[in-house]
Design goal:
The chain has 2 domains: about 200 residues, no CATH class; about 100 residues. The longest helix is centred in the C-terminal third of the chain and has 38 residues. The chain has a two-stranded antiparallel ribbon with strand order 1-2. The chain has about 400 residues and is mainly α. Helix 1 crosses helix 8 and helix 2 runs parallel beside helix 8. The protein contains 14 helices and 2 strands, in the order H-H-E-H-H-H-H-H-H-H-H-H-E-H-H-H. Bound molecules: zinc ion (2 copies).
Length: about 400
C-alpha cells in the first residue's frame, strides 16, 4: 500500500465480473432490445400482462417475504406462502433469502456506518444503489450467517439457500420460456418477462437502499439518513416510508396511514383473513406519535436557533405536557381496544364501553388542544425572543 499521505485511495477490492456482466447485459437488452423488438415484432397483450404479473409476484416476494417476514420477523407466514416467497425471491435474482436477510440486518444494525453497513448511503447514491455489489466489498463476511440463526431453523429458507442456483435458473429463464411457449413468442417473452422485468425488479428494490436514504422527509428520526417518500412507495411496493421503517422496523407496515400506498402491508393483512399470515406486529400508536412530535420540536428548535434559556425551558415544559396528554389518551384507547377484543371473543356487551369511549374522546380533545397551544407557543418563539 502506498505510503504517500496524499493518496487516500486504499486499493479497491476486486471486481465481481459475474455481477458486472449481469447488470450491464440485462440493462442494455432492456434499453436497446425491448424498443427494437417492440418496433420489429411487437409484444402481445398477453406478454404485457405476463410482465406485470411476474413483476408484482417477484417484487412482493422481496418486500413481504425477504424483507418484512424473514429479515424483520414482522409477522408469521404459512408454509405455502413461504414457498411462494422463496420462488418469487429466486425469480427476483437478489441472492437467497438467508443471505439477503443477513445483509439487511447488518444494514439496520449499522445504518450509515461506511465500514459495517453493506450498502451505506453515506458512501453515495451509486454505491448504495448498485456499486456495493460490483466489487468484493463483503468478502470477509460473505458466508457469515451468525445474525440469521433463527432463519436457519426455517426449512424453506434453507431449502431455497441450498438450491438457489437451480431455482434461479428455473424461475428467471424457465418461466419466461414456458410463458413464451404458451403465447407463441418465446424470444419476446425472454426479452420482456425475463430480462426487462428483472431489471425493473432489481432497480425498484435498489431504490430503497439509495433514493429512500436521500430523497424525502425525516418524519420520525434524523438519527439516520432514511427518508419517507410517498412517490418512492409507488415504485417499491410500499417500501418508500423508509424513515418510519428504520425507527420501527418490527412493524409489518411501512405506510401506517390507510391512504399510504403500501401493497405489501395490504397483502400481509389480506393473508391474515385467510390464515396465511399471523402474529402481525404493529408499533403502539403512542410511540409513533411521540417520535413524530419529538422530531417536529427538534426541527423547529434547529430552525429558530432559540438561544433564550427561559423560552427553551418553557417550550420543553409545554412539550412534556403534550406528550403526557398523548400518553393519557393512548392508555384509555388501549383499554377500550382490549375491552372490544374481549367482548368480541366472548360475544357479550360491556356496559362500561360507552363511558370509556367518552373518556377517550375527552382525552383526545385535551391532547389536540394542548398540541395546538404548543404549536402557537412554538410559532411565537420562532418569531424571536422579543415577541414573547
Ligand atoms: Zn435502509
Ligand atoms: Zn428493513
Amino acid at each position: 500500500m502506498s505510503s504517500n499521505p496524499s493518496s487516500n485511495a486504499t486499493e479497491k477490492p476486486p471486481i465481481i465480473w459475474v455481477n458486472v456482466s449481469l447488470f450491464t447485459i440485462t440493462f442494455l437488452i432492456t434499453v436497446i432490445g425491448v424498443p427494437w423488438y417492440a418496433l420489429t415484432h411487437g409484444f402481445s397483450s398477453a406478454l404485457v400482462i405476463g410482465l406485470i404479473g411476474t413483476l408484482v409476484f417477484a417484487g412482493l416476494s422481496i418486500t413481504a417475504g425477504y424483507h418484512r417476514l424473514w429479515a424483520h420477523r414482522a409477522y408469521d407466514a404459512h408454509w405455502s406462502l413461504r414457498i411462494l416467497f422463496a420462488l418469487g425471491g429466486a425469480l427476483a435474482l437478489q441472492n437467497s433469502a438467508l443471505h439477503w436477510a443477513s445483509d439487511h440486518r447488518e444494514h439496520h444494525k449499522h445504518v450509515d456506518d461506511n465500514d459495517k453497513d453493506p450498502y451505506s448511503a453515506k458512501r453515495g447514491f451509486w454505491y448504495s444503489h448498485i456499486g456495493w455489489m460490483l466489487r468484493e466489498y463483503q468478502a470477509s463476511r460473505y458466508h457469515d450467517y451468525d445474525n440469521v440463526k433463527d432463519l436457519q431453523k426455517d426449512s424453506i429458507v434453507m431449502w431455497q439457500h441450498r438450491h438457489y442456483l437451480v431455482l434461479t435458473v428455473l424461475t428467471t429463464i424457465g418461466w419466461p420460456i414456458a410463458l413464451g411457449l404458451m403465447v407463441g413468442d418465446v424470444w419476446g417473452s425472454l426479452i420482456l418477462v425475463g430480462v426487462a422485468r428483472l431489471v425493473l425488479n432489481h432497480h425498484t428494490t435498489f431504490f430503497i437502499n439509495s433514493l429512500a436514504h436521500i430523497w424525502g422527509k425525516q418524519t420520525y428520526t434524523d438519527r439516520n439518513t432514511a427518508r419517507d417518500n410517498g412517490f418512492l412507495a409507488l415504485l417499491t411496493f410500499g417500501e418508500g416510508y423508509h424513515n418510519y421503517h428504520h425507527i420501527f422496523s418490527a412493524d409489518y407496515r411501512n405506510g401506517i396511514r390507510w391512504w399510504h400506498f403500501d401493497p405489501t402491508k395490504w397483502l400481509i393483512r389480506l393473508g391474515s383473513w385467510f390464515g396465511l399470515t399471523s402474529n402481525l406486529k404493529r408499533t403502539n400508536g403512542y410511540q409513533i406519535e411521540k417520535a413524530r412530535l419529538e422530531m417536529q420540536f427538534k426541527k423547529a428548535k434547529e430552525k429558530a436557533q432559540i438561544s433564550c434559556e427561559t423560552t427553551l425551558a418553557t417550550l420543553h415544559d409545554e412539550f412534556d405536557m403534550v406528550v403526557a396528554k398523548l400518553r393519557d389518551y393512548y392508555q384509555v384507547r388501549k383499554q377500550l381496544l382490549d375491552l372490544k377484543r374481549q367482548a368480541m371473543k366472548q360475544n357479550m356487551h360491556l356496559p362500561s364501553m360507552a363511558e370509556l369511549k367518552q373518556k377517550a374522546l375527552t382525552l383526545r380533545t385535551a391532547f389536540e388542544q394542548q398540541q395546538r397551544e404548543f404549536a402557537q407557543r412554538l410559532q411565537l418563539a420562532l418569531r424571536g425572543p422579543q415577541a414573547n
